[in-house]
Amino acid sequence: MLHVLVVSYTGSEKEAAPFVRDHVGYLERHHADGVFLVSGQTVPSSQGGAIVACGVDRETIERVSAEDPFVVNGIATYSITTIEPGRVHPALAELLSATAASRD
Q1: pLDDT for residue 26
Q2: Cis peptide leading into 44, omega within 30 of 0?
């Protein structure tokens, strides 16, 4: 399964600034464990960010998103869309199958 996580600020970027370092650590941790494939700020950045995650079920990604320091500190909320891929680019298919195999 793939999950598209949209991170929306509940206030301003300025209000989020004190929590950016911890948020980046959170992102790095989940990139390192293979759950997050892509993450980045929206354009414009004042809206928040987005993450593409894989290899875990919906319940797990909901738990992971609730642990984001932005969420814990009331700076952002998550919207999660779960996708069961139907058609996938060959390069991405290889990555997704490798991620799924490492979780089995």
Answers
A1: 98
A2: yes
